[in-house]
Amino acid sequence: MPADPPARGPTVRRIPEGDDRARLVCPDCGFINYENPKVVVGSVARWEERILMVRRAIEPRSGFWTLPAGYLELHETTEAGAVREAAEEAEAEIELEGLLAVYNIPRISQVQLIYRARLVSPKVAPGAEAHEVALYRWEEIPWNLVAFPSVRWALHHFHDSLAQPHWTPQTNPPGETGAIASG
Amino acid sequence: MPADPPARGPTVRRIPEGDDRARLVCPDCGFINYENPKVVVGSVARWEERILMVRRAIEPRSGFWTLPAGYLELHETTEAGAVREAAEEAEAEIELEGLLAVYNIPRISQVQLIYRARLVSPKVAPGAEAHEVALYRWEEIPWNLVAFPSVRWALHHFHDSLAQPHWTPQTNPPGETGAIASG
Asked: Which residues of B touch A21 (CB under 8 A)?
């Protein structure tokens, strides 16, 4: 008796009945993998004049500096997700002050919601996905080692917002789509 | 020779190696269905003193009134998604004025980004998923036939925002999680 062929998972691209876009469908069981953009939540959190940053221990951009941020989980609010990411990545306890920015990175189907926050204490330490954490003064930020364009945008939007009692959440800088330049 | 058993799709809940949460995994091919919260994008769009609303032709809440809104698609920005939904559901051309609100509905793992918008013309018509469209004055809105709590929140936040030249995006009203009361 021949062995069963291996099942293939959602690997065939076709338009399901009643839909208007191609989706990945499993040719064996018919499961339709409705992929949607993912939500990233994070924060720019400060202690006095210093900003919490995290040095990545995982790819992509391992060794580069970022903000505590990550994927929103099921049944989690964006606010709770931003607080959780600061705890996981920097063992930091933060209090959110409000939404700082909504960035769209359509190339990788990400919507990033970044909050402005205060650290409850300066006690921070690297989590499992971090090499190192730091509380940087603005003039100490290692700009040439910043992991992603949207981290740079968020730092600037945060810095601008400090001058105003009531700030307005920002979006991508004009013309910027978040693509990382090659080479 | 017995027929192959039917393939089962991602139906088994277990924690994949290197992960810390249970995911649905296909017992036949090992495909892991990483489910994430979904982003809904929409708008409160006005023509002079009137607000664009859409009467739903699909479940849930068929026959009830809502705002043009729907799931963000892959490789789409939230702004482009809000414009597309107005075109699809109300054949409306809109221009966004800015972010009106970010609502979290964790029970159903939704993050809703609602924009304030202007109609480019009052020419609107029901799309495939709508029974009817209307341009309602504030005092004409059929509040007892509004489809979802977050539609009511968005209408009120929109109305409040009109009084201010610079408004701040709002979140869920205090204590509200978007759960629809039973009975």
From this structure: 73
